[in-house]
Fold each of these.
Amino acid sequence: MGFATNAIHVGQEPDPTTGAIVAPIYQTSTYVQTELGKDKGFDYARTKHPNRQALERTVAKLEGGQSAYVFTSGMAAIDAVFRLLRPGDHAVISEAVYGGVFRLSTQLLVHFGLEFTFVDTSSHDAVLGALRPNTKMLYVETPTNPTLRVADLSALGKLSAERGITMVVDNTFLSPYLQRPIELGAHIVVHSMTKYLNGHSDAVGGAVILARQEDAEQIYFLQRSAGSGLAPMDCFLVARGIKTLAVRMAQHNTNGMAIARYLEAHPKVKRVLYPGLPSHPQHEIAKRQQRGFGAMLCFDLDGLEAARRLLNSVNLCSLAESLGGVETLISLPALMTHASMPPAVRQQIGITEGLVRLSVGLEDAEDLIADLDQALDKV
Ligand SMILES: Cc1ncc(COP(=O)(O)O)c(C=O)c1O
């Protein structure tokens, strides 16, 4: 079946008891056993419940994994993946990674004997140079948040296979509709489902999708032992959002490109970072490995005051963290999503104080352009 069909039907079969086309929300903590040691497939909601199981089937199918596990947030999912490592292990991470991953690794996981090196994963040589005998994981965000650097997943997949390293890809920015990392060599895909998978800014959740059985067993053990599995209501909301993922992403592509072109032509904008523009340094790689360019973009204004003026002048775009919803969100990574990074690191990877991030939503593109236009006039 095609992507849109799978998104609507896999894991979303009508409820066997009543025929309800949408499965009910199983808002229960425990399940009655028919006799001692015998149940109907569920015993306690921390370990497993029908809404979670259904969503996990959908997500695994869409990413082309053998299984998936869904968590209370993207960060809980990512934390579970890093716990596959053992003290003394080393991981190489994209340097322009989501700020929360930087915080988790450098401020928490280092205390458990894990070592991390941050490199520009769009440079094959930089990745190669960072590998050590104890490197067990390569954690790639592509495109990166917020600098939109694109890594060559096939090349990194080949390298990981040769060196016996587990390759993890954060596919949050594109969703499986636009990029399928497992087909390009990744062993594990992670998502903040809070973003495009849910798509409606009304739930927080994360997913880990696995290509290998041995990783799947460990991740499920972790989910049920640590109790970090997603609750029924949130599973229901994300499952509902996923049904329209294909049409939403197609329209996000169109809107993203329209806004990127508008901004690139604006005299007050110093540069636009969007993999769909021929001016983007990894445009050709993005064209090859992605089915579209998505709706995340950044642009540089002349410093913090110019950016502040813009952010305070927009009306239709909402000044908020997060991304991937139907509404357009605008933010300043240096002071918001990436505030936990030391200023020197931010500067090194190009997160200037004038760098504005847009998560282009599904409003009419001409309305968004009119809003940005009046706000840029005030800069
Ligand atoms: C690329 C990326 N990965 C992971 C996360 C973390 O997800 P969550 O906020 O659902 O914990 C985010 C959050 O913004 C993100 O942008």
Amino acid sequence: MAQAKPEQTFLMDIQEIRKRARQHMEKGAVTDGYKADLTTVLRVLNEALATEIVCVLRYKRHQFMASGLNAQSVAAEFQEHAAEEQSHADSIAKRITELGGEPNFSPEGILTRSHSQYVEGNSLVDMIKEDLVAERIAIESYGEIVRYLGDNDPTSRRLMEEILAKEEEHAEDMRSLIERVSKAGL
Ligand SMILES: [Fe+2]
Ligand SMILES: [Fe+2]
């Protein structure tokens, strides 16, 4: 017969927590209990922000190029992705300020900070392939970020997990779009 596991103890010094909460109030959400290396987390989140901005720009270019190629349904898909990447950028910027950092929106160096690349692509299929590549880069690098954050900053980790799931959807959208466009001979 399996033995019942002893109950796990949860001990917390609430007096100490109450005392510490009153110190360094200027740090807002960042308490003494924050376990991650804040400088690294802010740098990594700013890299993710740059990645999202580059993705917005690339999808926007593709949206308007596809309209010019008379591929309205493809253009609509690019437009939807651009809007979702924009909302990812906003959420990451918000998290950076919560952590007391500054979101870096400077155009200078944005491609260096970004994990994904900006490739314009000429034909419709080329554009979609470049988007798929960028999504796959984001998936890998965000996975690394999630693992790095671990239990040290659960809020940032959860945010990056949500964005990662969306990038996986995007990649699948682009994969099936390549099939659709190839079949239609667009
Ligand atoms: Fe994104
Ligand atoms: Fe994406």
Amino acid sequence: MLLVNELHVTQARGRSLEPPADRRAALEAAFAHHDWTPVPRDESDESPVRLTVEDADRLAGVAAELHAVFGGDVAALNRALVRHGAVPSLHGDPPVLAFHRPGADRVDAWAADACTALAMVIGVGQGRRLRSCEAEGCDLVFFDVTRNASRRFCGLSCQNRAKATAYRARRRT
Ligand SMILES: [Zn+2]
């Protein structure tokens, strides 16, 4: 989700976004902002994890694949699972279950794990919780955790804008 929102979305909360000129810097800032440390792919991975420019460019491609999934494109997700080699596998000692091939490079490992997580959500009948904001001028994606899966907007600012738009539309008619 973070990948899609940082690297692929071209409009958010009613404003258009320039794609980040430096994807690596944008990603690292986003990781820091969300207080998320990318997990090393295995015990041989250096720490802390530094993305390369090439990693960041490939992750932008992954973000584009995943954005389609939030629009309900299950076939695209199946293709991505194959492309990134998603497979259950035990890594390290003590063994930890992950969903990428042993020896997968970092981008494929993250992509495979992310695709698997989305597939699990969809596979247990919760795919409608993977949503894209319905407000005009916003393509942000989110995971709807409301009890009846009724959330339509990424946040309050979009909800308020959409309400205002609907109000103006009613007044015109
Ligand atoms: Zn929004």
